[in-house]
Specification:
heterodimer; A: alpha/beta; Rossmann fold; eight-stranded mixed sheet; B: mainly alpha; MetI-like fold; about 5% strand
């Protein structure tokens, strides 16, 4: 084997994207090197060009995107000059790629073992018994059981599907594996497992690993070296430890301050938004968002300069260390604040019938939400945390009666919403509004922004005339930090963060006292996330709003919420003041969630099952719990008080 | 004051005018909304789409002219109340005068000067012979039939020359419009029209128009003197029949949507949005309709209409009114069986839209169901409706031909491509073959259906969010 086998070298890569006004560079003069057995993490916000880079390496650029310059060497092979037939053999062989969506990357009508065997036949010519043995070995290598090989993709969970994909990619014994956001679609607990798996395989096989992510914390856990991209350029490249202790580029620094897991106190947003593809630059591409911008930055584009070994920065100010920043005061004062109760939910349950047979008889129930109680005080933020499918969104919709609850009471200002007639409910809804996760699906593309915002006013305050409505729309736009001329435009003219501002303005239009925020920032980049959270905080201080903040992002909770509620399988398993709960989690599930959050290494003590089977008796978490005892499987633990303000549903949490 | 004619508005005419009004309203609405205009701009930029649109417009114009009916006033003595002819004519009939009135005795081939069948003739010197007689109109102006091809060429070129003047006028008008719009000199605008990439759609439209006008000019110059596409069994000009059939085809293709649209929209959207028992009832309804063989249903309905007309002759005073009713009835029944596909599509799309967050947000505001449907659901399924209707059009035109061929289509005396093809059944069995009636019907139908399909394709490409236009 040659000495430089497994080495991926990219030089002078330039990729152009077709826009209405012609071809524009999306990636400019990009250079990367991945050594054998090295993990390089490519980090950047959406639109920075990181996924295009991966596709260009695989020569899978979509229509309307083209590579106009640059060379890609894999060992001694130049990929850009290779004929397509040779490239096809190479893809999934020496160079393999894992995509973000494990759902759509597998053939739904083919068994898992056959899909892996197909990859083996294509790249290693294995068939029959040899292939079967190799499939078994690969399944074992990615932590799947032999019986999983006999399943179809829909029978597997998201994490298992991603493992299958990894097995398929390993089938070609790649020298370099590219993983494009391989865990973004997965829950945080599963994410940690997949990353551990990738890391282990990379070490065992001496593969090069190019991991693409938007999450600097995640990069910290897996990377040997990190490359930060901004607007199609590398702005900083450094060994991991150097980057996290001594980031030199203002963008990297700002990004780290915007990450919820770093530091305390309010998140610090990066003003503005990343430039659109096709923007013309003369100076530094980050200049208009940079807090240390100088005249030179606007006039002259900086080149990558080396600050220490392996640490290169594209900034005129790279030599000067950043001024020490003082963090704002932590939100300590808020914790003591006690307001009157605004929302009280008692034993709320949502069950969906399972119907079978010709007559559609109900044979059972899916308990999406199973007896949840909570209170939200005036002007406080209560966080609701849980993995996907735990029922948190269903709970939010049931509180609003967008879904009819099956049991329980929802008291808003002492009025039981579940018993109101539809006309009385309509009036009551003025006090309670919701902001959704997806800023693209939550605004009707056929309506102007002014019509979207005025919709609630027209429905709930019909006494206001047209002019009063338009005045109100103007005020709301100002409150959420949008220009006045936004009113006449359609939603497609706005970025994700701006759309979320519109959604917030729409909810505020009817002057609610409670906002339910259903993962309002999970679709946004971190720098924009910090902007939206800052806006929410300002609005809370100004209007005395209460927030029910639904999220799966635990570090975020620590930064914004006074109290937190952890849900698992439709039930509350633990609740309490944020600081105590984070400092001393009582429920094993809470501990797992906290340990799985990226940014603290991948050394979790236990590797639990991804999902337990449905249980009819006992603790719902027992199947995944490493500490489960006999009584856990027999009877369900009640939600018991445990110290001041804290409750936990676990047999093992009691005083020992 | 008495008009020289009495306007007659048949049922189908009234419905067509309603449809035109609806289309005009839709166009106005589109022009006023930026997001609605954008996809049409993509159609505007598509070469095939624009060329097809011009052809469709030409068909539409003929169909429209043929839908303005009247009864001419008969000459009457002074002082008497005016009397009107029993025959209902259309503006189109009036415009193409000789085409309608120059009826031969029987078959004659395209551009023929003699009849296709032998007749017993008495010559000038009193002998009786069996021979092909000269046509009454076709080539009758020629002293010597041998020279007819030269005459045809001369007249054709002359007509095309006149047509080219018209075409030049169209280019000039287009350039003038562009010049005013862009505030450029006329010459610059003309050069832009000829070369500029962004104007490739309109340019294709103008080229198609030029071709059409040249062809029309040549045919118009020839038609008074020859039967360009021959004559049929009773001596009617086949070109005239084929042109008259356009209205029938267009009506079947468009009036049916008047029935389909309200049914599919209300039932499909209601099923998807409300779910539950509403959904169940509507699903059972359309599954039932779908499982009845369509042709049987149509045959039964047409027979019912037939019986109704025959038992109530006093209601329908002209032959045109009778055959028109049958046409409207055919549209109705095609619509009643044809809404299922669109309704199913709309149900699925609404099921998806109902769960979208902007609909949920509207519900959280307590917006009423009716308002949610009008503001949030309907505008977001409109593209599906448009695509389906345009795609269905050509299918309906073909369906008419098939049904008339089978004998359950439009009235046998009504000109339609289906009836022409039905008539051609026996003609093809003759020796030598009478091919021109079938060929004419095929040609006119083919051009219309091809244009409709090409246009539908560019509309679909423009409106389909998945067609992946480069941003």
């Amino acid at each position: 084997m040659k000495r430089d086998a497994g080495l991926l070298r990219v030089q002078g890569l330039r990729i152009e994207v077709a826009t209405a006004a012609g071809w524009h560079a999306a990636i400019d003069d990009l250079a990367l090197v991945i050594g054998p057995g090295e993990c390089l993490v490519l980090c950047g916000e959406s639109g920075s060009g990181k996924s295009l880079t991966a596709l260009a390496l695989m020569r899978l650029l979509p229509e309307g995107v083209r590579q106009t310059a640059g060379t890609v060497w894999l060992g001694d092979t130049e990929l850009t000059a290779l004929p397509e037939a040779a490239m096809r053999r190479l893809r999934g062989g020496r160079l393999a790629m894992i995509f973000q969506e494990p759902m759509v990357s597998l053939n739904p009508v083919m068994r898992i073992d056959r899909q892996i065997a197909e990859a083996l036949r294509a790249h290693r010519g294995l068939a029959g018994r040899a292939a079967a043995a190799e499939v078994a070995r690969l399944l074992d290598a990615v932590g799947l059981k032999p019986e999983h090989g006999l399943s179809y993709p829909f029978q597997l969970s998201g994490g298992q599907r991603q493992r299958t994909l990894i097995a398929m990619m390993l089938a070609g014994e790649p020298e370099v594996l590219i993983a494009d956001e391989p865990t973004t679609a997965l829950d945080v607990t599963v994410q940690a497992q997949i990353l551990r798996l990738l890391k282990r395989l990379q070490r065992e096989r001496g593969m090069g690993l190019l991991l693409i992510t938007h999450d600097l914390d995640l990069a910290h856990d897996v990377a040997d070296r990190v490359v930060v991209m901004y607007a199609g350029q590398i702005v900083e490249e450094a060994p991991r430890d150097a980057l996290y202790t001594d980031a030199r580029h203002p963008y990297t620094q700002a990004l780290m301050r915007a990450m919820p897991a770093h530091g305390q106190g309010p998140l610090q947003a990066i003003p503005g938004a990343p430039p659109a593809v096709g923007a013309a630059f003369t100076g530094c591409r980050f200049a208009d968002r940079c807090e240390r911008v100088q005249p030179r930055c606007v006039q002259e584009a900086p080149a990558l300069s080396t600050v220490s070994e392996g640490h290169r920065v594209r900034c005129h100010l790279a030599g000067q260390p950043a001024a020490a920043r003082t963090h704002g005061p932590a939100q300590g004062g808020r914790e003591q604040w006690e307001g009157p109760v605004l929302l009280q939910v008692e034993g709320l349950a949502v069950r969906f019938p399972i119907r079978r047979g010709l007559l559609r008889r109900t044979v059972g129930w899916v308990r999406a939400v199973d007896g949840v109680s909570l209170t939200v005080d005036r002007a406080e933020t209560l966080a609701l945390v849980g993995e996907s499918g735990c029922g948190k969104t269903t709970l939010a919709r049931a509180i609003l009666r967008l879904i009819e609850p099956s049991a329980g009471r929802v008291l808003l200002n002492g009025v039981d919403l579940t018993r109101l007639s539809s006309s009385a409910l309509r009036r009551a809804r003025a006090d309670m509004q919701i902001v959704f996760q997806d800023p693209y699906g939550s605004l009707n593309p056929r309506l102007r922004v002014s019509e979207i915002i005025a919709e609630g006013i027209a429905a709930l305050r019909p006494e206001l005339g047209r002019q009063a409505r338009q005045r109100r729309v103007g005020e709301l736009l100002e409150q959420v930090g949008l220009p006045q001329d936004a009113a006449a435009r359609y939603p497609h003219a706005f970025s994700g963060g701006q759309r979320q501002r519109i959604a917030i303005a729409r909810a505020l239009a009817v002057e609610p006292k409670l906002l339910i925020l259903d993962e309002p920032t999970s679709a946004l980049d971190v720098s924009v996330q910090a902007q939206i959270l800052g806006l929410l905080e300002a609005l809370q201080a100004r209007h005395g709003l209460a927030y029910l903040f639904i999220t799966h992002n635990l570090p975020l909770v620590a930064r914004i919420a006074r109290r937190v509620l952890v849900m698992y399988r439709g039930r509350v398993v633990e609740a309490g003041p944020t600081r105590q709960l984070f400092a001393q989690p009582l429920h094993p599930y809470t501990r797992l969630l906290l340990a799985s959050a990226p940014g603290q290494g991948l050394a979790a003590a236990v590797e639990p099952a991804e999902h337990g089977p449905d249980v009819t008796a006992g603790c719902a978490y027992a199947a995944r719990c490493a500490l489960a005892e006999v009584r856990c499987r027999r009877s369900e633990p009640p939600l018991a008080a445990h110290g001041e303000g804290r409750v936990v549903a676990c047999w093992l949490a009691g005083p020992r | 004051m008495t008009l020289p004619f009495q306007p007659v508005i048949l049922w189908s005419d009234a419905l067509l005018l309603m449809l035109l009004a609806a289309v005009a309203a839709f166009v106005l609405h589109t022009l006023r909304h930026e997001h609605l205009r954008a996809p049409w701009r993509a159609v505007w930029d598509s070469r095939l789409g624009m060329a097809a649109a011009v052809v469709l417009a030409a068909y539409g114009l003929i169909g429209l002219l043929d839908s303005l009916h009247f009864r001419a006033r008969l000459p009457a003595a002074a002082g008497e109340p005016p009397q009107y002819a029993a025959e209902v004519l259309s503006l189109f009939d009036h415009l193409v005068g000789p085409l309608r009135t120059q009826v031969e005795e029987s078959y004659s081939a395209p551009f023929a000067t003699h009849l296709f069948v032998k007749k017993t003739l008495v010559t000038a010197d009193g002998r009786v012979v069996r021979d092909y007689p000269r046509l009454k109109y076709g080539g009758a102006h020629l002293p010597d039939p041998q020279g007819r091809w030269a005459d045809v060429a001369a007249r054709g070129i002359e007509g095309a020359g006149l047509g080219s003047l018209l075409a030049a006028g169209a280019w000039g008008l287009a350039a003038l419009g562009l010049a005013v719009h862009r505030r450029q000199p006329l010459a610059t605008a003309l050069a832009a029209l000829a070369r500029e990439r962004t104007l490739k759609g309109p340019r294709a439209a103008l080229l198609t128009l030029t071709l059409l006008v040249l062809l029309t000019g040549a045919v118009a110059a020839l038609a008074p003197h020859y039967h360009v596409l021959g004559t049929d069994k009773v001596g009617q000009d086949v070109l005239y029949l084929a042109l008259k059939s356009i209205r029938t085809g267009l009506l079947i293709g468009t009036l049916t949507t008047l029935v389909v649209l309200p049914l599919a929209l209300t039932l499909g959207v209601a099923a998807g949005y409300f779910g539950g028992w509403v959904d169940d009832v509507i699903q059972y309804l359309y599954t039932t309709i779908n499982s009845i063989p369509g042709v049987l249903l149509i045959a039964a309905a047409v027979l019912v209409a037939q019986v109704h007309i025959e038992t109530n002759p006093q209601l329908y005073d002209t032959a045109a009114a009778r055959s028109d009713l049958r046409l409207v009835f055919l549209c109705l029944i095609l619509g009643l069986t044809g809404w299922v596909g669109l309704a199913r599509l709309l149900r699925g799309e609404t099921l998806k839209l109902r769960e979208l967050e902007y609909v949920q947000a509207a519900r959280a505001f307590g917006v009423t169901h009716a308002r949610i449907l009008v503001r949030h659901v309907l505008p977001n399924v409109a593209h599906l409706v448009l695509i389906t209707l345009v795609l269905d059009f050509s299918g309906l035109v073909l369906a008419e031909a098939v049904l008339s061929y089978v004998g359950v289509g439009v009235d046998p005396v009504m000109p339609s491509w289906g009836n022409m093809i039905n008539g051609a059944r026996l003609e093809l069995a003759r020796e030598p073959v009478v091919w021109w009636q079938l060929a004419a019907a095929f040609l006119f139908m083919f051009v219309l259906v091809l244009a409709a399909n090409l246009f539908a394709d560019s509309v679909r490409a423009a409106f389909d969010p998945r067609s992946g236009r480069i941003a």
